[in-house]
Write a structure and sequence with these properties.
Elements: E1 5-11, H1 15-25, E2 29-34, H2 40-47, E3 51-54, H3 63-70, E4 75-78, H4 93-121, E5 124-131, H5 142-162, E6 167-174, H6 186-198, E7 207-210
Parallel strand pairs: 1-2, 1-4, 2-3, 4-5, 5-6, 6-7
Length: 211
Amino acid sequence: MANPLAVILGAGPGIGLAAALRFRREGFRVAMVARPGDDLEGFGKALDGGLVLGADLAGGVPTAAIEAWGGFPRVLLYNASAGAAGPAAELTPEQALADLRVNVAAALAGARWALPSMRAEGKGTLLFTGGGIGLKPQRGLASGSLGKAALRSLALSFAEELEPEGVHAAIVTVRGFVRAGTELSPEAVAACFWELHAQPRGSWDSERVMP
């Protein structure tokens, strides 16, 4: 039987790559979806045997390519975000909706793709990268604050709804800048994601706030 699959949507050189490497180290096959302009070749070398795709998640999640390569995930981690700079009074409805397509709609689409398999098996984990601006909006980051607040609500809704079916949903709310060598290093956040996935049923957390 093949090792379980972890899918990282919105992977970059920080949290996304660190999470991919952590889950691979724990025995998972890993598929990463990064921005088309990112260092896809470098990610592929670091992952060494995993799948690395470039895609703009605002246009949809490349589920068919992932499924063809590795099937359905046991773990889905959504790490993408978008946010036009500026105050709420200057945020246009069009820009808000464009950012929400990345911050929330693509996360929902990815989860809906992964959920039937997880529900059928009675196990699986949906993970989301949140931000402190989702708890307390920051001046000049209205769109990003809106997106992270909405993503947090989606994650907590999933947690409430899916626990009876054996599917664990949780969000890691990162309050601050992710920097190597700090308590918010990519590896520290990735470790938090792994700990959430590894929690025994009956002791699940739906949110971790770092630090």
